Amino acid sequence: MLRIHGVGGYEEVGRNMTCIEIDDEALILDMGLYMDRFVALQEKKIKMNREILLNEDAIPNDNVIKSIKKKIRAIVISHAHLDHVGAVKWMAPNYECPIVTTPYTAEYIKRTARIKNKIIRVNVNSSYKISKKLEIEFINVTHSIPQSTMVRISTPYGDILYGLDYKNDNHPMLGRKTNIKRLRELDNVILLIADSTNADVEGKTFSEAIAREMLKDILFSLEMEENGLFLTTFSSHIARQKTMLKLIKDIGREAVFIGRSLYDYIESAEKLKLIDFSSHAKLIKNARDAEKLLNEMNKKKNEYAFIVTGGMGEKDAILSQIANDELALKISPQDIVIFSSAVIPTPTIQANRKILEQKLHRKKARIFKDVHVSGHGSREDLRDLIKIVSPQHILAAHGDMNKCASLATLANEMGYILGKNVHLMQNGQTLKI
To answer: Which residues contact 132 (CB under 8 A, 6 or more apart)?
Structure first.
């Protein structure tokens, strides 16, 4: 008997955590933060602990798997985005089992979470034997962070494919294409746990190469010889940062990366030799410790381009500190601010971003928004994925009920029947197959 326990991510975009119970064994897939609640707690300057985060719904509530805790053989992390890995710090120590993940994600966990769980590194497109009955495989997919994967769980009953945070990008700016060849080889997928984030978006998600061209068009067409240039994207989006670094060099400026989360993700990637930013740019982890340097840079802003944290309007992030005149680095009238990211669709984050934009407008900055392509597949990407792997069952995840219902509607168009072989559930519920 297979039981799928929806711990988190079945009612919201984020807080992803699923437990697969296979007879007398079980695996946990991902342990993520719900960023809206987590950001709100950060702004209150509350010292984080497991109890507070649980009470505020910022991390998954794992009571649904409390009775099978001794069955759990491993925590498997698909990639290093915070809504998939951010809760490991507080939750993993409660489980006496290893964490199994790819090298980049392992490096990020090691850098940001002090935990005693053994971390087992498995290369992308490689397999690992959990037990005599269970094997996992990390299948490379394109997304907006290095070494993103779908996880294949091989069980005595067939394969389960955990396919969150996926798109099929034929022109990635960093890393390899989605391993469609391997996905086509899977001939006994009994369940696909599928990404619903963009299931309600018609068409196909564009390649990361399109974001490069959008940035290029802005940077090479503006009259900005004497003006400051500020760019922001997700701290984990190493491919976008790589594009920024190249284009900034091409326009004759020096790139400066500022912010703790940017530093952690970049350092993790450099440790594995996935990139080499530090030879070509300045990396500043703590802006307040670099006031003298930032003051000098501020006097000749037109020689630099500043890639900073804060695209979601986080109150303690670098862009907000600059907008609030809390740093030596300032935004002057006609300086350029490029948001190369979408706004995470949650109330707190949307409100914070709006406040930040209003502050930038009052400073008379030139603002460019949505210079971005998503890392999540849209409706037609998901249709192709279902066609490629031909799962017996589909479970919609990584979305609120409207998004998950959109995936169920798509599956229905392809011959699946809601309640029979396409499924919706809420956090805390269990699906038996």
So the answer is: none
